[in-house]
Specification:
With 199 residues, the protein is mainly beta. Helix content is 10%, strand content 36%. The chain contains 1 helix and 8 strands, in the order αββββββββ. It has a 4-stranded antiparallel sheet, with no helix packed on it. It is elongated, with a radius of gyration of 37 Å. It starts with a helix and ends in a 7-residue tail after the last strand.
């Protein structure tokens, strides 16, 4: 009669082993396997640590600086006019005016002003200290009161008013600070139309 006791002992061990090995990930009373559930520690929906995934947000917060800001750009006079330029003589000319503020206050010493897409410009980029201004190139961080700069552009002399042909010319203006941050404005247009009957 000892065999029934062995069978009972084996049955009890089998039941214990089955209960212990229940693969129920969420520790509930359901014996259904939870392998396909979404663990609470899944990195995709918790705090993004930028090591394994980047699913929840872009964490690129590296700031390479604040660019200078161009404003209030215009040509004056427009169209061009015959004016006397000191130490040069009479030329058909217009001045490009613009305001700039630079929150980093580092236009000088290595920033540049570039006037592009205009005819007959040998070197389109100038040092900030080459421009006329009503302020101080070393003090331009007040964006509520930006600093005004300007530059003369000649289209033709009194003897050769059509040194640059009649027409409309549209410039592209790029300003940069010493760290290389830029601001760009395009389609800043001026008309050169001297009365040919004068000559």
């Amino acid at each position: 009669m000892k065999y029934p006791y062995y069978l009972l002992l084996i049955l009890c061990l089998f039941v214990f082993a089955f209960t212990y090995c229940d693969d129920d990930d969420d520790n509930d009373d359901n014996s259904t396997d939870d392998d396909n559930d979404d663990d609470a520690t899944d990195d995709d929906d918790a705090i993004d640590d930028d090591i394994f995934d980047d699913d929840t947000s872009d964490d690129d917060t590296i700031d390479d600086g604040v660019s200078p800001r161009i404003g209030n750009v215009y040509w004056e006079p427009n169209p061009t006019e015959l004016q006397e330029i000191e130490n040069i003589g009479y030329w058909w000319v217009s001045y490009i005016y613009f305001t700039v503020c630079d929150p980093n206050n580092d236009l000088a010493p290595d920033g540049e002003f570039c006037l592009l897409d205009m005819p007959v410009i040998t070197d389109p980029c100038l040092d900030w200290r080459d421009l006329e201004t009503d302020g101080d190139v070393y003090d331009v961080d007040d964006c509520d009161n930006p600093t005004t700069f300007w530059l003369a552009y000649t289209f033709g002399s009194i003897d050769d008013p059509l040194g640059i042909p009649q027409g409309e010319y549209c410039a592209r203006l790029i300003v940069s600070d010493s760290a290389g941050h830029e601001d760009i404005l395009e389609d800043i247009c001026v008309t050169h139309d001297p009365p040919v009957s004068m000559y």
